[in-house]
TrEMBL record:
This is Dienelactone hydrolase. It comes from Streptomyces poonensis. Residues 20-235 form the Dienelactone hydrolase domain. Belongs to the AB hydrolase superfamily. Keywords: Hydrolase.
Amino acid sequence: MTTVTTRTIAYAADGLTMIGHLALPAGVDRRPAVLVGPEGMGLSDVERRRAEALAELGYVALAFDLHGGRYLGDPEEMLARCTPLLADPDRMRGIGHAALDVLRAEPRTDPDRIAAVGYGTGGAIALELGRDGVDLRAIATVNGLITGRPGETARIHCPVWAGVGSEDPIMPPAQRDAFTAEMQAAGVDWRLVVYGGALHAFHHPPVDHIVLPGVGYHPQHAQRAWRDVVDLLAECLPITE
């Protein structure tokens, strides 16, 4: 295990002061980097730990913020903010680009070797960065199988990996089919993994507040999804080239 250094970074996005969590691997050399996007509730210790786990593997990792340093544990408050956000690709791209600028500005980051990994709303933002033509090495989205504006998915020029629970009512089969049809029509190198019996946010450990119906943790599939993400990064964004 490498020694990981972390720090918080304040930056502007979506009219708010965002508070991101940067994790750096040992050493002083430039490394490939990963942007990590959180579920709709916002940045929590779950995403911070994932950024640190990626740094232990040798990546520079930035877990970005959605709500100006706030974690929205009230489902109604979360939906009130995220529903219009998910319907506005330009706003999502603005949040993603602001975080990406922070990651690229880090001296340890190799700006030509960046991937985006996101969960829920954070996954939707990762996809919108790809649809905006951002040069990414890979995109991974868990529970965020949104479709985009017509024709823009053809601007994704990296592999896309997606994971979803088979029993996720927020990302039902019709949504999965629309997403994969869009990827296929655009000629994207895509993969979809459906985790049997899993609900929405199956990767996220239990929280101490009320959650939406159809949300639930699945420990076994959470570990499998993490391994799948790490394997994607190893394939598309190896530490040494």
